[in-house]
Design goal:
It is built from three helices and five strands; from the N terminus they run αβββαββα. It is an alpha+beta fold. It has a five-stranded antiparallel beta sheet.
Length: 134
């Protein structure tokens, strides 16, 4: 059975796409810690645990995430992009990339932002433009 993230990457469920290629897909988290909080997933592999990925998929996922992180940093002007691999909420490998100006920006216990669709669209477009420049 396909996960919600597989359906998102296939275009069956709408998302705020930031970047994609044949193997990986990046989209905005709909309950972000900060504006620009992005999830990066393998497109064709439905593993629940990142360390269960084969070596090529694992390396490719991190290379793609690195490029997405550079785009997030350029688009948001943050000091750093934090990385978290939790994987408890959806049984599909995903990397959280969170724009950070302080360590508290990576506190997953804090209240998530609620943004209007127009703001999500603007953020996604901004990160996507930066990604395309890389």
């Amino acid at each position: 059975m396909a996960t919600i993230f597989t359906k998102i990457a296939a275009g069956e469920i709408p998302s705020w796409k930031v970047a994609e290629n044949e193997d990986y897909y990046a989209f905005l988290d709909i309950s972000p810690l900060k504006e620009g909080h992005t999830l990066v997933i393998p497109r064709k592999v439905e593993k629940d645990y990142i360390f269960d990925l084969d070596s090529d998929c694992y390396a490719g996922l991190w290379a793609f995430a690195r490029k997405v992180a550079a785009a997030i940093k350029a688009a948001t002007g943050c000091k750093r992009v934090g990385v978290a691999v939790l994987g408890m909420e959806v049984p599909h490998v995903h990397i959280h990339l969170v724009p950070m100006d302080s360590e508290t920006d990576m506190d997953f216990r804090k209240k998530k932002l609620e943004l209007p669709a127009e703001r999500f669209a603007a953020i996604a477009a901004s990160i996507s433009r930066e990604f395309d420049k890389l």
